[in-house]
Design goal:
The complex is a heterodimer of chains A (919) and B (291).
Chain A (H helix, E strand, L loop, with lengths): L1 E3 L2 E3 L11 H8 L7 E4 L3 H4 L7 H4 L3 H18 L2 E3 L11 E5 L9 H17 L4 E5 L13 H7 L12 H9 L6 E5 L6 H13 L2 E5 L5 E3 L3 E3 L2 E8 L6 E10 L5 E11 L5 E6 L3 H6 E6 L8 E3 L8 E6 L14 H7 L4 E3 L3 H7 L3 E5 L6 H12 L3 E5 L2 H5 L20 E2 L34 E2 L8 H4 E4 L5 E8 L2 E6 L14 H9 L11 H4 L3 E8 L5 E3 L6 E2 H6 L9 E4 L4 E4 L18 E4 L6 E2 L1 H22 L6 H14 L4 H15 L4 E3 L4 H21 L8 E3 L11 E5 L9 H12 L3 E5 L13 H10 L7 E3 L26 E3 L23 E4 L3 H5 L14 H24 L9 H7 L3
Parallel strand pairs in A: 5-6, 5-7, 7-8, 8-31, 17-18, 17-19, 19-20, 20-25, 33-34, 33-35, 35-36, 36-39
Antiparallel strand pairs in A: 1-2, 2-4, 4-32, 9-11, 10-11, 11-14, 12-13, 12-15, 15-16, 21-22, 23-24, 24-25, 26-27, 26-28, 26-29, 29-30, 37-38
Helix pairs in contact in A: 1-4, 4-18, 5-6, 7-8
Chain B lengths: L1 H14 L22 E5 L5 E6 L11 H5 L5 E8 L3 E6 L16 H18 L3 E4 L10 H11 L21 E6 L5 H13 L3 E8 L1 H5 L6 E4 L6 E4 L2 H26 L2 E6 L5 H12 L3
Parallel strand pairs in B: 4-5, 4-6, 6-7, 7-10
Antiparallel strand pairs in B: 1-3, 2-3, 8-9
Helix pairs in contact in B: 1-3, 1-4, 3-4, 3-8, 5-7
The chains are: A alpha/beta (919), B alpha/beta (291).
Chain lengths: 919, 291
Amino acid sequence: MWVLGPIGFTAPTLLLGLLALPVLWLILRAVPPAPIRRRFPGVALLLGLKDEDHQTDRTPWWLLLLRMAAVAAAITGFAGPVLNPVPERLGEGPLLVLVDGTWADARDWPRRVARIEELIGEAGRAGRPVALVALTDLPASDLPFQAADAWARRLPALEPKAWEPDPAALAAWATGLGGDFETFWLSDGLARESRAELLEALLVRGPVTAFESPRAVLALRPARFEEGEVRLTALRAVPAEAAQVEVAAFGLDPSGIERQLATAFLRFESGATEAEVALSLPPELRNRVTRFALTGQRSAGAVTLTDDSLKRREVALIAGQGERERLRLLSPLHYLEQALEPTAELIHGTLEDILLANPDVIVLADVARLTAAEAEGIQAWAEAGGLLVRFAGHRLAASDVSRDDEDPLMPVRLRAGGRSVGGAMSWGEPKTLRPFPEGSPFHGLQVPEEVTVTAQVMAQPDPTLAERVIATLADGTPLVTRKALGEGQVVLFHVTANAEWSTLPLSGLFVQMLERLAISTRPAEPEATDLAGTVWQAEEVLDGFGNVREAGTLAGVAGERLAEGRPGADMPPGLYAGEDRRIAVNAIGAETVLAPAAWPAAVTVEGIAVAEETDLKPVFLTLALMLLFLDVLASLALAGRLRGPRQGLAALLVLLLLTPRGAEAQTADDFAIAATTEVVLAHVLTGDPTVDGVAEAGLRGLSELLFQRTAVEPALPMAVNLETDELAFFPFLYWPVTADQPTPSPEAYAKLNRYLRSGGMILFDTRDANLGGFGQATPNGRKLQALAAPLDVPPLETVPPDHVLTRTFYLLQDFPGRFASREIWVEAAPPDAEQVEGMPFRNLNDNVTPVVIGGNDWAAAWALDERGVPMFPVGRGFAGERQREIAYRFGINLVMHVLTGNYKSDQVHVPALLDRLGQ
Amino acid sequence: MTEAAALRNRAEALAAPLPVLLAEAEHLASTVLLGEHGRRRAGLGDQFWQYRPATASDEARSIDWRRSARSDSHFVREKEWQAAQSVQLWVDDAASMRFTGDRNRPTKGARARLLAMALSVLLIRGGERVGLFDEELRPGRGELQLLRLAEVLSRPEAAADYGAPEARGMLHHSRAAFLSDFLGDPAPVEAQLTKAADRGVRGALLMVLDPQEEEFPFDGRTIFESMTGAVRHETLKARDLRSRYLERLAQRKARLQDLARLTGWQASVHHTGEPPLPALLWLYRALERRR
């Protein structure tokens, strides 16, 4: 390999052939045999005479150059040019290729693999045994030195992991290294404490070369929820110039499809390594967010999963007392609202609507009676995981709900009436609360002294009662009971939600209890002690590239390990579900700081980029062939043999050679430009050449008349293929209906509907008004019905006498074409259009009618041939000419209507406007 | 000297069959030396030429009373103008004259010298004075002059590619003959002819060409060189040049003819492939028959 700049040659000796080029030059000049020297006195007369066919006899310089270039290209091609040749790396002995294999590697993993492949390939060529080790996936035993090919085959299976190497395991592995070897370390470029130790161990064994990618490492810290906003912090390792990264929030949309829900930009100031943005999302949206990811970053570090800490629960509050006006403090929901407002999303409304919103919690405050449908709905909702919280009250106490049989929506049976303690009409003191027993969700909450209960509903002593009680009064009567209902649960507070029956809603305990019931948002991070002894099951895990995958059957993770927080092979980043909540483990922790790796001077640091070794041989040989081909053509042309058909053929070939691809796009652009440069009337191609020709001629005639008489100056009409052409450019489509035209494809119909909705107009012409009135079963009429069925056509009516079409330019009442049927259908006027007293016409539609349907064969009446003479007779004699004139006037009115809308209709407002102006 | 003798011998042989060349005497004024032959016009001389009616300008003593007595009017007796004519020759001795297209053909120079010498012989035998346009060989007569002529003409040729006539000692109203291939620059020729016309000199231009020069029978890539090699022209297809070369040659000939016509000279072409006698005849007649 001989390297010249960025190009190397595999067979450089062949390049010596280039030295022969000057010789070739002389030969290729095609000079005749050596000249004869002649003494000839007549030479004086020859002086100044040029050889007449000098051009052919001596090869023109450009042709010579062409041939030389061809030969040079061939020589160069055969010399095996290689762009960016990979320099040979010299080295001996075993080679250890070390990959960090962390999430930070994922950003340019293919390049790393390419580099590894190249390093391994080199080692293989040098016969060195190779060991490939990823630090996140340490080999169990000694260094696995093998032949390079074996590693090359296994290379595709190498993947970056979403976690960082375990320092302890790494240290143990480093101390266990033995033997002498060279190390190539493909670093992910992040500073890590374990790195220095390992490097030391490796340097003992042999030289170390590090490979680092210059590409910036970006990472995203877990999202925090603060003051109603989601705060996101992006990190980068190198404090470089100011930069901006986009972060996107992903989540399921209501139909369960994952979508990008929101995006924001994070701006790194110059020299800063952190960038923060506060994302204000509507709670609906925020609750759906499953992860945030930096766009364009393919690594687990750039993805942060969200868990329950970000979610705000939706709580629906329903009170029993209809809409009676009450004092606010007596409202059964007031205290709940106060308690939940800061931490949850509250939903009010009827039960039906609420069920549709699928809230997390439904609170029924003193609701006794539910209709069967409501009860069913709530039950289904609760069984699907909803939390139903009920508060007692007079109504519940007075009702028969769950009296004899346990209501599915009540945790316990209730005794009639309830009880009142410590009131004016009862004995005893108001009851206080007993400390919460172990196993209760409220366990651990401090019970304030001042919480007293004066009235409550009483639970029937059932066998299941004991296990359903989660809070009791000092005398042991249940205060809060709970039962599971499918996936969800029902909780009953045996007191009211207001301060009528107890002081509980007045105390802080109320809020804490609601929190414990997961009605309101919990604190973000669970304490280690909370997690102790629990087992968490991964639901989703992140791979090194930041892709979310189903966790499958990963082993459960102990709560202690989860509390530790640092992901590893035993706990990949992902979403872990516990008993009643989910916790996200992210590759990047809340305190993670990124820093670039620092290498001692003993380590050579190289770039990771493998300049792609490109074999240029085919390029050069192709070039040589093309040049030779051109040479053939040029030689033929010079020899005067490129005449007649050969000339055409050669031109064709050259054109083929030179024709750039993408000519189709060109035509589409041309079409768009032609259609939009000026106003263009268009007609739909029916496939019948006669009809299309008449339509074209008709629109041409109409365009001419418009040009002569109005300010509309249309260009030549265009034919539109519904399947391929864009319709949006045309204000007006003329669609002659033939019985046998093909039905447009669904895409074409979508296009047509879009066209109609966005203000376009189609004039359907069945051209058969001579056969029968519109709507009667002519073949064209039936075809029109078939054609128009999928169209988004509003209700139609025959043109009323005060339709704006009758006065957009000319005052008309008839709309004849070649035939003079009066049945023209347009969009129906709104039913409430009333004629105002003194106005000549009603205030009708505020839009252009999207379709005009008739059968008068207008195009035939409009059609002009090239000389401007009408192509078809209309009527007889002067009356016929008059009819043609009216037909033109109709066409002009129609185009005016399309272009100006209901401008003329707005004249109804003129008196009002004048009045307002004080005239 | 042997060469000069040989030249003379050959010239003598060539000149032998010709009648004595009697160059017509046109003017007498400058070349007052009378020759032996009349000039076929009235003038100073010994032999009767004609009687003509006397005019008022004639002196009375010039009237031939004997003739006048035989008629009523007066006649003047005129005698034929007899004068020895000076003929000066220029034989091109440039390198181009050394050319011959065939070994069996004489060079143009040799043919030109032969013609010049033969002409000299004829003229001298006719009593004319012959010389060269050269200071050292003024027109003279007699056998000795022939020897001198032969000697001068046999000298080694000049080095120049193309000769130019150098008529330094051109005598008024004399005769001159230029023998050359006239392939060089025509301007000196033209200048000399104009000068000659100014001095009343008449004469002949004989273009001596090799047949190859006339036919241009060449083909293929050729480098044409002048005889000294100083001028060269390369062509890839000599055949293609032929027509244009011939055209130029014809132009050159036409130009010489034009020049000759304007100055009262005569011009002709002689090819070395042809026998020299017709050329000598033509020269002889061109110098003789001028009226």
